Each structure stands twice: as structure tokens, then as C-alpha cells.
Automatic annotation (TrEMBL):
Belongs to the bacterial solute-binding protein 3 family. Residues 1-22 form the signal peptide. It comes from Pigmentiphaga soli. Residues 34-264 form the Solute-binding protein family 3/N-terminal domain. InterPro entries: Bact_solute-bind_prot3, SBP_3_CS, Solute-binding_3/MltF_N. It comes from the Bacteria. Keywords: Signal, Transport. Coiled coil: none annotated. PROSITE patterns: SBP_BACTERIAL_3. The keyword Transport applies. This is Amino acid ABC transporter substrate-binding protein. CDD domains: PBP2_BztA (cd13692).
């Protein structure tokens, strides 16, 4: 009996400790009045400033959506540009609240750095780009080639693994800053450039002279599921970021857009009623307003709207949805149900 009482007492202590810890990030975010998001130093379509210093991209939209969830106001956010070597330390130290920074979620990051992945907002894969004049049709023709690389990324590790498995060699040219690395590639300092295929498409379309002079080879060296990361130990904050992303995807599935969301409040569909908070419960579970999804969609848009204006046909990138289409349209975007 004493053993049982001790065990129960121990469980109660653990539960109390968990309850005290829960909500720590949300409380801090509300106290300062904005969400601090870590983003790239400039990757078009994901997080990039224009000539006036206004940042756009799907990662910026996700940051805005988290602000809409927490405050009901998508404008209550601030961005911290971080390079590849700064990003995890900034999140671990509390400098940023969430890291929606075109970052691949891996086991070592999710389990080894004290961080948790909160979903995937872009499915990608590592590719290789070369100058057309090189006459290369496959990565297997690049034995001994020099590669432009950023340090501290999965890109370098994936390239090493792939070349080792293919019994080929390469020489790295490592430069930290993305813009400098692209200029080095354009100037011919490297034979090839490797990074996520989406970034290669962006580079070819917007950063390199004459897009037709560059070829993205057919091989994909890896899976690169990109998504937001948060610190481990605060389940409520993880839930808020995770369900914010799910809400954007779920809204697209049900055809709820920034243009029709007011009209959709009158929908008789019980799923739509739950999503938009007409039927309450979801907001209470997260510790936010019941209109949290309405605020996201009204102020930021659903996932499809965000993709289109930043990466798709409404953007200079003109990127096909591909794996990032909804599951009902042959893609991988499948939202967990809000119910």
C-alpha cells in the first residue's frame, strides 16, 4: 500500500511539474506582445526581403499565422534573420520562439538538439545544378568536380553520402553566406551547386544570368521535409505551431479562402463550423480564441494561397505544386483533422 501511495504521489508531482511548465512560451510571447520567428537571411519564396525591406515567403506567412493564432493579429510578429550555423542556437537559447526557416526536420535535430518538429510546410529533395556548357546530363558524370556548399547543413552530409555510395569524389567550396555562394557559382569557382531543388529553381529563375544557361540534373540525393521547429518541453507551444500549420492545410482542403471565409462562417458543413470556431472547442484546447483559424485564413490565407503567391503561379518562381499539392490532388499535404 505504501508503495502504491508513493507511486501515486510521484505521478502527481510529475503532473504538477508538467502543468507548471506548460504554456511557458505562450506566456512569454503574450507578455512581450509578438512572436519572434527565426528565418533565413534571404531565400526567395521562403523568407526574403524586397527592396523596401518587406519580408515575404511561405515561412514568413507561417510566422504571421502563428501570430494570428496567438493574438488574433497577424501583424504581431518580428523576424530574426539567421544563417545555417546560427539557427539552432538561436532557438535553443530562446532568442526566437519558433524557427520556420526552410530547415529539414531530421532525427538528429528532432531528438538530439532539444528541438521538436511541428510538421512539414514544404516537401523538397536535394538536387544538383550545373552550367549547361559543362555538358553534364547526370550527377554520375561529376567525379572530381568542385561543389559550392553552405556549412552546417544536411546538404553537405547528403552529398558526401551519395558520392561515397556511388564511389565518386568531389571537392567542396564552402562559403557561409548564401548570396556570396551563388555569386561564386555564377563566376565559375565551382563546377556544381547543390541544395534543395526548390532553392535551385529559385536561383536559376531570379539570381543567375540567363536561366537557360543552367541545368538542374535529374537525381535527387535526399528527402528534405522542411518545417518549423520549436524547443522541446513546452507541449502547448508545440501544439499551437503544429495546429496553425494544420489549419492552413485543412482550410485549403475545405475550400476556405481569405476571400470567402466570412461567407463560410454560414456553412452548414459541421467540419467547416468546427474549423472556423462556429462550433467552439478547438480554441479552448489550444488556449487561444475560438476564431483562431478564421483569423489565420482572413489575414494570411490558406496553405494553397500562401504557396501560390510565394512559390507558385502567382510568383516569379512559377513552381508546380508537385509533392506539396493536397493529398486529394496527388500530393503529400494531408492535414490532421480539427475536431
Amino acid at each position: 500500500m505504501k508503495l502504491l501511495q508513493s507511486a501515486v504521489a510521484g505521478l502527481l508531482i510529475l503532473a504538477a511539474a508538467g502543468a507548471a511548465h506548460a504554456g511557458q512560451t505562450l506566456d512569454a510571447v503574450r507578455k512581450k506582445g509578438f512572436v519572434q520567428c527565426g528565418v533565413s537571411t534571404g531565400v526567395a519564396g521562403f523568407s526574403n526581403p524586397d527592396s523596401k525591406g518587406v519580408w515575404t515567403g511561405i515561412d514568413v506567412d507561417l510566422c504571421k499565422a502563428v501570430a494570428a493564432t496567438v493574438f488574433g493579429d497577424a501583424a504581431k510578429f518580428k523576424l530574426t534573420p539567421l544563417n545555417t550555423q546560427q539557427r539552432f542556437t538561436a532557438l535553443q537559447s530562446g532568442e526566437v520562439d519558433v524557427l520556420p526557416r526552410n530547415t529539414t526536420v531530421t532525427l538528429s535535430r528532432d531528438a538530439g538538439l532539444g528541438l521538436s518538429g511541428a510538421g512539414v510546410n514544404f516537401y523538397d529533395g536535394q538536387g544538383i545544378m550545373v552550367p549547361k556548357k559543362l555538358g553534364v546530363k547526370s550527377a554520375r558524370e561529376l567525379n572530381g568536380a568542385t561543389f559550392c556548399l553552405q556549412p552546417g547543413t544536411t546538404t553537405e552530409l547528403n552529398l558526401a553520402d551519395w558520392f561515397r555510395a556511388a564511389k565518386l569524389n568531389f571537392k567542396p567550396v564552402v562559403i557561409d553566406k548564401f548570396d556570396e555562394l551563388v555569386r561564386a557559382f555564377a563566376a565559375g569557382r565551382c563546377d556544381a551547386y547543390t541544395t534543395d531543388a526548390s532553392a535551385l529553381s529559385m536561383m536559376r529563375a531570379t539570381m543567375l544570368p540567363n536561366p537557360d544557361d543552367w541545368v538542374i540534373l535529374p537525381e535527387r540525393l535526399s528527402k528534405e521535409p522542411l518545417g518549423p521547429l520549436v524547443r522541446k518541453g513546452d507541449d502547448q507551444w508545440l501544439d499551437i505551431v503544429k495546429w496553425t500549420l494544420n489549419a492552413m492545410i485543412e482550410a485549403e482542403e475545405y475550400g476556405i479562402t481569405s476571400k470567402n471565409v466570412d461567407q463560410m462562417l454560414k456553412s452548414a458543413n459541421p467540419n467547416v463550423q468546427r474549423i472556423l470556431g462556429v462550433t467552439p472547442g478547438g480554441g479552448k484546447s489550444l488556449g487561444v480564441d475560438e476564431k483562431w483559424v478564421y483569423n489565420i485564413v482572413k489575414q494570411v490565407g490558406n496553405y494553397g494561397e500562401s504557396f501560390d503567391r510565394n512559390l507558385g503561379q502567382g510568383s516569379p518562381m512559377k513552381m508546380a505544386r508537385g509533392a506539396n499539392a493536397l493529398w486529394t490532388q496527388g500530393g503529400l499535404m494531408y492535414a490532421l483533422p480539427i475536431r
